[in-house]
TrEMBL record:
SUPFAM superfamilies in the cross-refs: Adenine nucleotide alpha hydrolases-like (SSF52402)
Boundaries of every UspA domain copy: 1-134
A Pfam family the protein falls into: Usp
InterPro entries: Rossmann-like_a/b/a_fold (IPR014729), Universal_stress_UspA (IPR006015), UspA (IPR006016)
Membership in a protein family: Belongs to the universal stress protein A family.
Protein known as: Universal stress protein
Length: 134
């Protein structure tokens, strides 16, 4: 049913918690797993965060690949630069993902956070079903 599963990751606790769900889905459906990390371009004022360095992203993806490898799951890794929600949906389309699995920080559960929520934007723009792990 889910031949290709896309798992966007970052260093958040929610992303780490979603990894268990991803492993279960991939094992049950014998899916191809694609890990995605999105680097946001520097802000207009030139500031960057820790996840903007190529080294930090490479380390994150390697750690995630090793975590899944320990469970007998081979994963491909993709690193992209851009706005997270749009990039996630673009990559899902490019790899013909059948499912996107993401953690949720809960920021989109309030009126103030709904417009800024990456999760909400992915749900609305995705070319495939999205599984949100709370």
């Amino acid at each position: 049913m889910f031949k290709t599963v896309l798992f966007p990751i970052d260093r958040s606790r929610e992303s780490q918690q979603a990894a268990e769900t991803v492993a279960g889905v991939v094992k049950i459906h014998n899916s191809r797993l694609i890990l995605l990390s999105v680097v946001e371009p520097p802000a207009e004022d030139g500031t960057t965060d820790a996840m903007s360095s190529p080294e930090a992203i490479a380390e994150l993806l390697t750690t995630a690949k090793n975590l899944f490898a320990q469970q007998g799951i081979e994963a491909d890794a993709i690193e992209r630069e851009g706005k997270p929600a749009f990039t996630i949906c673009d990559v899902a389309d490019e790899v013909s993902a059948d499912l996107i699995v993401m953690g949720c920080r809960g920021l989109g559960l309030t009126d103030e956070g709904v417009s800024d929520s990456v999760t909400n934007r992915v749900i609305n723009l995705s070319p495939c079903p999205v599984l949100i792990v709370p």
